[in-house]
Design brief:
By secondary structure, this protein is mainly β. The protein is built from no helices and seven strands. It has a four-stranded antiparallel sheet, with no helix packed on it. Strand 3 and strand 4 form a beta hairpin. It holds the Pfam family Zona_pellucida.
Amino acid sequence: PYYVDMNQNLFLQASLHSSDQNLAVFVDTCVASPNSNDFRTLIYELIKSGCASDSTYTPFSSPRSDVARFGFNAFSFVNRYPSVYLKCELVVCRYHDYSSRCYQGCVKRFKRNSGS
């Protein structure tokens, strides 16, 4: 566990460990939950499909393509839960493959209209 005060800035880094130097990593989705075993019932989205859902979420540049860095302000679930757990989904792509998901950034998915 990592203990922080409310609204304290948290900085995270995800590193890809591979012998292939031509890979890039991208943070696609991160959700928080008060339950480490349930990321469906009560969640808070920090980022979804590469789009920040939380106003304090900030991606940071990294000197290497196989490292993703981001940060956000610490929060709690209405003071009823003592802990907050994170679950993030990252995408691994070929470095400099600009058609890959890693280089698309925020992807807004629109729902279709089910007209008559």
